[in-house]
Amino acid sequence: MAASKNQKTSSPTGPNIGRHASGCRICAHPQRREIEDDFIQWRSPAEIAREFGLRDRSSVYRHAHAFDLFQKRTRNLRAALERIIERVDETPVTAGAVIQAVNAYVRINAHGELIERSPVGLNDVFAQMTAGELDHYAKTGTLPPRFAQVMGATGAHGPGDNGEA
Prior knowledge:
The chain is mainly alpha-helical.
């Protein structure tokens, strides 16, 4: 059965980028990179359209679908949570909502992956260390690399302190 004019057909290889680009105002926009970055940073597509003189938010969504920006945006979930946390003084939110956002934020690593950590006692870690590793820890205060993931090492002050975004 052939697809009607109103039905969308999907291609197993994705959208035809050349066809998309020929009619896309974002592809031809001098600030295309800023538009894409704003989308990836979870800025509202309606706000993006207004600021950059685009027709409407659907233009942003079409472009994002054509270039698979949703995948990058999803990996950048921490940016959305940061926006919620930063606006705590400007928006009427409950304390519970802020706590949930912070809790979710600290469980997402720099690659946008949700990390479930289980409690680990330091005594258990020290019991697994060799004499050389214990000596190194005593001198430098750093655990062997094999324990970094187990302990959820994130830097001195929390996730992202290692220079990664």
